[in-house]
């Protein structure tokens, strides 16, 4: 959360001479230009401060935009920085040909992530081994739908599990095994092994034929914490199977409509009522996805505050299944795992959109930016606990 930058003053002087006002307009906001001292060492120091703020945020300077990284003064007259809702302490200096700036993201900015979510983070014991950090299994995949189970099982590892297994149909086992590295691939004919895992996710890309339905019914009857998504929700709606262990259901509006016998337009217009109907029919914890995802049990309900429309892209729900399964496997209860999972998935999506835009974001980016979301939440928790 600290950034530093060094700028060669003669270079800034040369650009100022060559490009004049045009350069200042491109780099400084109107607020900054109003008070700007045009000595090259001052301009170079301000420029370095912007780069240092971008580094403290972990965002490229061009992506953040020069003019969005604002060097200003606080109420006491001390130099500080601002980027959207984040603020920075700044320290600037220059000597001969060089100007230097150090930026530190203020704690208040770090705390703008949810303290409640930060306090749910599973603890990591320094003596942990992979078997002690949660074993997650994802049951799904079928020809043409490898991607979904890859995304789910990979996301489970990135969300902190020590071991992640993908249970795929025997017919695609060889192909799928070649594709995966950290994830361990198993055949769905070995479902008895599932008793050794801590939590399960079922449904991504699993298909809707009879074979898939039979696998679903066997797995759904296991007394293990379980996330039910995608084609798992299809089989559940069709079979109205009895649940044994703790369950989290993660429908989008279309899947919710099927679960409660409504249409998707009705669900979109009555999201809270749809969740109530789903809870009454299936119990457990319900996650109704989409803008303002609802996480609800019969006793608790929250509307999630992270995430963005760039996440409306194929496979992003599969990533969510893996993240929630991982938190279940690390010992959180169903409501906590769903709450933290949805929050982290959205926060990773917000980081991904910052780096790659809402247009360029794809589901695997959510896995890539999950570590950044963890770092942010871990920093918030450390500050809360001080
Ligand atoms: N790379 C891979 O391998 C991937 C594999 N995947 C796998 O594909 C399988 C099928 O998944 P699915 O979500 O497409 O299935 P389904 O249940 O038919 O729902 C779609 C229907 O519901 C409707 N709908 C209404 N509201 C909606 C909403 N808010 N969000 C979304 N839909 C909404 C929608 O309406 P429409 O779009 O026509 O308006 C449409 O009629 C599943 O196994 C999944 O894991 C995917 O994860 C992608 C990456
Ligand atoms: N407009 C949006 N704003 C925020 N999040 C969204 C938006 N649209 C979709 N999402 C999120 O993206 C994910 C999509 O899940 P899903 O529809 O199951 O995708 P897939 O089946 O392709 O993996 C959900 O977590 C949902 O909340
Ligand atoms: Mg889905």
Automatic annotation (TrEMBL):
Protein name: Multifunctional fusion protein
Taxonomic superkingdom: Bacteria
NCBIfam families: acpS, pantethn_trn, yjeF_cterm
InterPro entries: 4-PPantetheinyl_Trfase_dom, 4-PPantetheinyl_Trfase_dom_sf, ACPS, Carbohydrate_kinase_pred_CS, CARKD, Ppantetheine-prot_Trfase_dom, Ribokinase-like
Main localization of the protein described in the UniProt heading: cytoplasm
EC number(s) recorded for this UniProt protein: 2.7.8.7, 4.2.1.136
Species whose genome carries this gene: Aedoeadaptatus acetigenes
Residue ranges of every copy of the YjeF C-terminal domain listed in the record: 113-377
Membrane found in the keyword field: no
Key word Nuclease present: no
Keyword field: ATP-binding, Cytoplasm, Fatty acid biosynthesis, Fatty acid metabolism, Lipid biosynthesis, Lipid metabolism, Lyase, Magnesium, Metal-binding, NAD, NADP, Nucleotide-binding, Transferase
Its biological purpose: Catalyzes the dehydration of the S-form of NAD(P)HX at the expense of ADP, which is converted to AMP. Together with NAD(P)HX epimerase, which catalyzes the epimerization of the S- and R-forms, the enzyme allows the repair of both epimers of NAD(P)HX, a damaged form of NAD(P)H that is a result of enzymatic or heat-dependent hydration. Transfers the 4'-phosphopantetheine moiety from coenzyme A to a Ser of acyl-carrier-protein.
Pfam families referenced in this protein's UniProt entry, alphabetically: ACPS, Carb_kinase
Binding site for AMP: 289-293, 317
Positions of Mg(2+) binding: 5, 51
Homology family: Belongs to the NnrD/CARKD family.
Localization in the cell: Cytoplasm
Signal peptide interval: none
